[in-house]
Amino acid sequence: MNSTRKNRRSTRTRFLAYTGGFVALCAGAALIAGTLATAGETGTEAATVAETAQAAGSPEGWASENGGTTGGAGGDTVTVSSAQALVEAISADGPAVVEIQGSIDLDGMNDVASNKTVIGAPGAEITGGGLDIDEAHNVIVQNIAFADWGDDAINVQDGSTNVWIDHNSFTGGYDGAVDIKRESDYVTVSWNHVFDHDKSMLLGHSDGHTADEGHLRVSYHHNFFDGSDTRHPRVRFGETVHVYNNYYRDNEEYGVASTMDAGVLVEDNYFENVQTPTEVGYGSSDDGRLEASGNVYDNSGQPETAGSVADVPYSYNPDPAQDIPAIVTDGAGPGNL
């Protein structure tokens, strides 16, 4: 690892980036509240919607680059409680904050258009189907419990950019919880809880999809991989893929795998009862590159590393690895915004 990497992190820069994005979202939320109150909602209802929109905040990591990720800030807020209403709202043109109430059972994969925040009200869940972020830009998915999906829970593909997947939970699905592929870029996956599930997070479509080279810049931080088996993430081609401050516990197969000349930084994570924290190469895939630093290996194997990896351009201030179990178990998943 580059010995100056951590010295280049600026807490002040990170704070200013966060507050700048948050102020913009608050301004959009205030407009939303005013619009809804004018339309006849009570002051309490309008305030609740405004608070939900503000809760989106601003991402750290790759989703903060390339102009940043604000989702549907500045657009109308639409509250949905049925599958039909949800599908119509997330696929419509223009910016919008789509607030999910209750449990919605979807069928198959459902398109999310650009400039959307899809955010759950307290207790919101999506079952049966998933969200397809396909050729879309500037999307936030936040505060939703996903369960029992038939394909993927969230699929990001076909050149989608500036996507933030944050404070969700994933359990019991068929395939990936969060799969990112086909030239997608500038994505942050943060504060999610994956449990009782096999294939967690794939990054890169296939060994033969070389168009992914130069893309797939993704940050994974403060996620709780809780007894999930594999792909946390499994990486092809992407660089720099930044995996930091995640809590890995009882992962049966492996934690992180770097293949097909991907460049992966694995730092300040906590691995507990994980026999294979990191792998270089996997299955029939060629080796990737992987640097590991500052991690805790509690009753776990030692990491496999290889080569060097390019630094990330953004500022960040990681939590100490030894504190990650407490921080992540307390803060990951829906209900913890």
Global shape: globular
Total of domains? 1
Question: Portion of residues in helices?
Answer: 10-25%
| Number of discrete helical segments | 4
Q: Measured on Cα atoms, how large is the radius of gyration?
A: 19 Å
Structural class: alpha/beta
Instruction: Please tell me the CATH architecture by its name.
Output: 3 Solenoid
Q: Which CATH first-tier class would you pick?
A: Mainly Beta
Mean pLDDT: 87
Strand order of the largest sheet: 1-2-5-8-11-14-17-20-23-26
Number of strands: 27
How does the major sheet shape up? Answer: 10 strands, parallel
CATH superfamily: Single-stranded right-handed beta-helix, Pectin lyase-like
Query: Segments where pLDDT lies below 50 for 5+ residues?
Result: 1-50
CATH topology: Pectate Lyase C-like
* Fraction in beta strands: 25-35%
What is the first-to-last residue Cα distance? Answer: 32 Å
